[in-house]
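Technical note accompanying the year-one report. For the benefit of new consortium partners, we illustrate the data format agreed upon in the data management plan: each record pairs a sequence with a structure-token string. No post-processing was applied to the example shown here.
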Amino acid sequence: MTDGYSKTNEPGIYAIGDVAGPPMLAHKAEHEGVVCIEAIKGLHPHPMNKLMIPGCTYCLPQIASVGLTEQAAKDKKIDIRVGRFPFVGNGKAIALGEDQGLVKVIFDKKTGQLLGAHMVGAEVTELIQGYVVAMNLETTEEELMRTIFPHPTLSEMMKEAVLDAYGHAITVIAVSAQLACECSSSAIGASGEAARSMEWFSVAIE
């Protein structure tokens, strides 16, 4: 076992990387090394907080997450707000042909603290760092909602998910209406793409 500075219970012995325990990730080990050496040199670094370590899976689709899951927050008896936004509601994702995916965020209902974020879809391993920075800076939901995200980008989904958690989602309403029309068309001979998109959308709003 190690503490936030990679100290073990043996005086003078430090441990970093896989031997220090999960998550077994290269970027976690690198940061542990920096914190460890700075602590040894007496530079008073901030201790490692494992909840702030992003986890990325480079599969198809990509998966990325940071912080608590919805269930973990509930297990801690935290009153939460959850926001979701589907890739099919994002213009850049559609233009890239990558409209299948989801962004999900969990907030502390009382304080507005961002507790966790979970993403599935194209380039989410790049996007997750935005939430990691927000969590490290203790950014609240109000500050995130006031932040201007560039258009058209995949990152807009990150803001939309936050807005959804607080009942202020903009694009999701238009997406719902559009998909309803497309699925009606598919019933009379159109392609199955609309139905596939509606399936993702249903998952997103549950």
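Partners are asked to follow this layout when depositing records. Residues 156 and 181 are 24 Å apart (CA to CA).
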